[in-house]
Amino acid sequence: MRTILFILQKEFLQIFRNKTMIPIIFVVPVIQLIVLVHAATLEVKNIEMIVIDKNLSQTSRKLISKFEGSPFFKVKAATFSMEEAYNKITNDEATVLLVIPEDFENRLISEGKSNIQISINAINGMVAGLSNAYASSIITDFNKEIIPDIVTIPDKSLLAIKNINITNSYWYNPDLNYKNFMVPGILVLLVTIIGLFLSSMNVVREKEIGTIEQINVTPIKKYQFIIGKLLPFLAIALFDLAFGLSIGKLLFDIPIVGSLWLVFGMTIVYLLVVLGVGLFISTLTNTQQQAMFISFFFMIVFIMMSGLFTPIESMPDWAIEFDRINPLVYFMRIMRMILLKGSMFNDIKADFYSLLIFAFISLGLATWRYRKVA
Amino acid sequence: MDKHEYIINTVDLTKKFGSFVANDKLTFSVKKGEIFGFLGANGAGKTTAMKIMCGLSKPTSGHVNVAGYDIYTETEKIKKNIGYMSQKFSLYEDLTVYENIRFYGGIYGMSRKNIRQKAENLLTKMEIKKYRNNLIASLPLGWKQKLAFLIAIIHEPQIVFLDEPTGGVDPITRRQFWDLIYEASHNGITVFVTTHYMDEAEYCDRISIMVDGKIVALDSPENLINKYNSKNMDDVFVKLARNPSVKL
């Protein structure tokens, strides 16, 4: 125990004497939260739209104003030239083209139905899909409100539509505030980056400067060394989590519904996984550069597949299978559940056990690979 | 001489890296309290053998006993009883003189009081009391080396292994360094030192000369000089290293 205290004392001295450390500890969370939360948004708003209204009727105008009134679309220009409209799409000045045919209102009145054309620039598949969905929902709305008023043919089936009302209520994030979803995810990212980089660079640094050999000829025990190396980074990462949560609360007013004790408890378990992986990388490599590249590689893979930026549900089956071994997925789910839903330990038990298994594996690997040899 | 007066015993110590034989059947013994010089050209296998004796690596075959413990099964016990100063400078540059002393003393299980006392003695001995809170990085190389040595024996080990401790320092500092070695030896610490400075070899009680992984000579410097009809150790070494088959 005393030995561990001596190691801790030395590690903390070195960490805080390192001039880049304080900026890392304070700047990384600020930048990540402020920049990433805004930039990495999946929300699609103000999709630019061009309208060709050949009908110019009261009904067609109603339809257009319905689009204008929605937060998702911005009618950028109205024209009668198909060519001009296509040019605008090609030049990226607009994403969506709405064409209302000449006989739009007449057919609605006489036949009870009519067609409009919507063309979407689908280079960004996600934006296109969302544009389509938003447009469809606006048109469905329009149908319900307007058709029964103007259609002269009495048609029971059309009237029936009006009777089915879908009311949405969004649980746990009633305002559909994207930040509420992002901030817990970014916090996961934050503790992962801090934990993985700092720990993977640390032991290998002692290898580079040669001090590891001196340590290895002392009667220090493996577990003492590993605990001495882990605890400082655990403390720093937890501090950064607290710091990040405060920024999230102050700046974005994210909800913290569940218990903070539970949040920190779960973070400790998760950090054991991350720090174990970091130390393992450290034992495999000989220079800080190698350690940096390997950590970076794994980090990118695990973050990209974590569901932070793209929903896991829309990944291919093999990727979904892969995510079973992605600790970020489990921890992100835990964080969102506690912070947004106020989940208790019982609700996150399964994910917690998975993390615990990961922690055993990664720390086991690190202890096994760390050998007191030259 | 009685067997228990030997503190290091090796019999047929062999270390192979693939097909390369770094240490070829080394058999030698080191007496308690002596200064044992381990000589050889670069790449002769000195460091490899030393690392085995410190428990940093395992031999391919052979028996090694250090401070009464077996190298295969009792490395952790050996580590309690030895000090080691590697070729690579091994103090923490970003810690102060005192912090380094405290850290190494601490992981050898010394009490805080004991550490303070030792540190005081050490700083006085080196006449660097006022540099106690200076970072190691700010000290001249010669001081660092001497400090590294004193820290390597801070826990009063039975044996201290020094791997080319005076590489890159000036002659005066080397002389001072050897004064420290004599003092340690005088206090009962066995000193096992590798070097390729032949003048230093003459300071040792006994020396072994290694060529290409084999020990080709082992005796006191005076005896070796006489045996090989040489003026000094330099001569002996050149004769042996050039033509290892010269045997008496």
Features:
heterodimer; A: 374 residues; mainly alpha; abc type-2 transporter like fold; 2 domains; four-stranded mixed beta sheet; 6% strand; B: 248 residues; alpha/beta; Rossmann fold; six-stranded mixed beta sheet; 9 helices; 36% helix; 26% strand
Topology:
The complex is a heterodimer of chains A (374) and B (248).
Chain A: H1 2-17, H2 21-39, E1 47-53, H3 58-69, E2 73-78, H4 82-90, E3 96-100, H5 104-111, E4 117-120, H6 125-150, H7 156-163, H8 178-209, H9 211-216, H10 222-252, H11 260-284, H12 288-304, H13 317-322, H14 327-341, H15 345-369
Parallel strand pairs in A: 1-2, 1-3
Antiparallel strand pairs in A: 3-4
Helix pairs in contact in A: 1-10, 2-8, 2-10, 3-6, 6-7, 8-10, 8-11, 8-12, 8-14, 10-11, 11-12, 11-14, 11-15, 14-15
Chain B: E1 6-17, E2 20-31, E3 35-40, H1 46-53, E4 61-66, E5 69-70, H2 75-81, E6 82-85, H3 97-107, H4 112-126, H5 141-152, E7 159-163, H6 171-186, E8 190-195, H7 198-201, E9 206-211, E10 214-219, H8 221-227, H9 233-242
Parallel strand pairs in B: 3-8, 3-9, 6-7, 7-8
Antiparallel strand pairs in B: 1-2, 1-4, 4-5, 9-10
Helix pairs in contact in B: 3-4, 5-6
Discrete helix count of chain B? 9
Could you tell me the strand content of chain A as a percent range?
5-15%
Radius of gyration of chain B: 18 Å
Major sheet size, sense and barrel closure of chain A: 4 strands, mixed
CATH topology of chain B: Rossmann fold
- Percent range of helical residues of chain B: 25-40%
Subunit organisation of the chains: heterodimer
Strand order of the largest sheet of chain B: 6-7-8-3-9-10
Count the DSSP helices of chain A.
15
CATH superfamily of chain B: P-loop containing nucleotide triphosphate hydrolases
CATH hierarchy, class of chain B: Alpha Beta
Question: What amount of the residues of chain B lies in strands?
Answer: 25-35%
Give the termini distance of chain A in whole angstroms. Answer: 25 Å
> What value does the average pLDDT of chain A take?
86
**Ends distance of chain B:** 23 Å
Derived structural class of chain B: alpha/beta
Could you estimate the helical fraction of the residues of chain A in percent? 55-70%
